[in-house]
Specification:
about 325 residues, alpha/beta, Arc Repressor Mutant, subunit A, D-Maltodextrin-Binding Protein, domain 2, 9-stranded mixed sheet, two-stranded antiparallel sheet, 12 helices, 11 strands, about 40% helix
Length: about 325
Amino acid sequence: MPSRLPPLTALRAFEAAARLLSFSGAANELGVTPAALSFQIKSLEEHFEAPLFYRHNRAVTLTEGGAALLPGLADGFASFERAWQRALQSKDTNVLTVSTGPAFMSKWMAPRIFNFTQNNNDVELRFSASLRLLDFDRDGIDVAVRFGYGSDAGLHSFTLGEEWVTPAMTPEMAEKFTTVESLTKAPLLIDDSIDFLKPRCDWPAWFQAAGTTENNVRGAHFSNADHAIGAALSGAGVVLGRASLIARDVAERRLVAPFSVGLVTQGRWRFLCLEGQETRPAIAAFKSWLIDEAKTVDFLREGREFVSVEALSKP
């Protein structure tokens, strides 16, 4: 059996046909005629000296040899794609594509980004606001800011700061609800976007941290944190706001956070990029800016008592 590798075009034709289990579908994906694709696969089978497909009336299936070949080829072409994307990104050293969640983009990053661009006008920023976990290579992402516990294997990960929550409302509403007990009667706004945190970092947990029990929490539910904060800004109710997302509204007195108890979660905001890319000038500048800006929410911590939601869950 020949040990030399067959032509790359033949391997590419096989990978597409084997993945789709369709010669016509593979030809369409690769932009070639079905006859050209069949020729490439036939030449690969001649090189292999055995069939790679069983040809049925209207379909194809893989032989044992074809099934053995497909996984490695799929990984190989995925690796080629990643290498190509990295090469393309290396050409645009001053283009920075940033991915983060919609709430963090609208409530934290967008209002501050002028401070970065003013001092780094040679960097062209491109933003992707999505809760979907993007792939740095496949999606062409340079930097991500993510909230949660993190599973950052293979990435450079830097914690920007811990996250905590506290009730926030308009100054007018704060005049009506001045105690924890009165807050149990307030219209509460519920941010479902942090339901993934375990233990739950929600209204019942905050009331427990504040020294009272209120498990029958009712109110309007929001799937996005910025929508819940927007409702609070309109005077619709009291939001259990994440410090990073309410800080600017509190600083500018659109919201107040009058209660001293802050409920801390182990969920963290993290700066992420590919290992080795953190020293790239545009990425290093953006990381440094994020670290400095993260400190601007520290004023919210003054005079507060912090309780860990993990500690509350212990018997």
